[in-house]
Every structure is written in structure tokens, then in C-alpha cells.
Amino acid sequence: MDQVYWAKPVLTFGDPEAKLLVIGLAPAAQGGNRTGRIFTGDSSGDWLVRALYETGFANKPTSIASNDGLILRDAYLTAAVRCAPPSNKPNSDEISNCSQYLLAEIKLLERSTKVIVTLGKIAFDAYCRTSGIKGLKFGHSKIYPVNNDKILIVSYHPSRRNTNTGTLTWQMWINIFERARSIINLKERTII
């Protein structure tokens, strides 16, 4: 807590013409909050960027620092909350305060986005609330058509609690991004 980066908001990151929008929970205190880039420098970022690389959304499989040369292609990373929340659990006020930023990004990327992946229940709920979507149930690997022409894919968050216990395995995880890639490819073929 005595570090200069502590509790500062973290910018989102990615391709401004992204076809894939990934929404996480919040920057990790010793990851994105420390490095200044979302999903960078922690185990969740390791899982996410490796999956993005393996499915063609990133130029490299690692994300260790904001100046490490990582480039996202057709993908954009954001979060329900912009600052590392105490005990890694944001309260409803923090989620509500940050919802304006999430809504602005959803609108900015609306033209290009084809698939939205939410990581964890808080991100899922924040996306649904911000987008005015009701009646959907959280569950890993659930897929929903949303906002006329987009697809929502729901995933567990790649937190250590989930990955170390086997709640989320690598195969379950990579399947989410393979499915996202396949949907994007199918939508692009349909347009042509």
C-alpha cells in the first residue's frame, strides 16, 4: 500500500477496431495496478494473453510490463472496475462508478465488436447491467446472442483460485477463445 501505483486507475488496452471485447473484474493489485496495463504482470494475465496468442489475437504469449511489445489484434481488454478493489472484491458503488467507462467503451467498439467474453460473474453482471440485458444466467461456457448481432460468451475468471483448484482448466479456458475466434471467422465469411 505504500507504493506509488497503489489504487490508481488502470487504462484498458487493445485494438480500437476489436472484434473481440474481453471484460474482466478489475486490475490486480500486484498485476495491472503495478504495471499500469490491464491483465499484465499477474497469473490471470498470463492465462489470458497465452490464450489470446494461441488463438491469433496477440503477437506474443506473455504480458509482463506495459512496454513489453504486446500487440493485440482484433481484441480489446477492459474491466468492470478500473482500480484494484480492497480484498479483490469491488462493492456495488465501485461497480456503479466505473460503469460509465465500460458503457463508453462498449459504445466506442460497437461497430467492430462481434464477440464479448466476460470473465467471472462480476464482469458478466456488469456487462448485462450496463447493456440493459436481463434474464441471462451466469455459467462457464454459456453462449448468448445479444444486442442484435453480437455473441456473449461467459467464462469463469482465470484467477488462481479457479485455476489452482481445477474449477477452470486450460482446456476449458482455451475452448472459450477458440469458440470466439470461430464465431468471428464465421461472421466475417457471412459478410463477404
Task: Give a written overview of the molecule.
It is built from 6 helices and 6 strands, in the order ββααβαβαββαα. It has 192 residues and is of the alpha/beta class. It has one domain (13-184): Uracil-DNA glycosylase-like domain (Uracil-DNA Glycosylase, subunit E, 3-Layer(aba) Sandwich), CATH 3.40.470.10. A 6-stranded mixed β-sheet has the order 1-3-2-4-6-5, with helices on both faces. Helix 2 (43-54) packs across helix 6 and helix 3 packs across helix 4 (121-131). The protein is globular and about 45 Å long. The model has no long low-confidence stretch (mean pLDDT 88).
The secondary structure category is alpha/beta
For the largest sheet, list the strands in their spatial order. 1-3-2-4-6-5
Q: Give the helices and strands as they follow along the chain.
A: EEHHEHEHEEHH
What's the rounded overall pLDDT mean? Answer: 88
In CATH, the topology is named: Uracil-DNA Glycosylase, subunit E
Q: What is the CATH class?
A: Alpha Beta
What is the name of the CATH architecture? 3-Layer(aba) Sandwich
Count of distinct structural domains: 1
Overall geometry:
globular
Number of helices: 6
Strand percent estimate: 5-15%
Annotated CATH homologous superfamily: Uracil-DNA glycosylase-like domain
The stretches of 5 or more residues where confidence is low (pLDDT under 50) are: none
Largest sheet: 6 strands, mixed
| Residue share in helix | 25-40%
Distance from first to last alpha carbon: 52 Å
Radius of gyration: 15 Å
The total beta strand count reads: 6
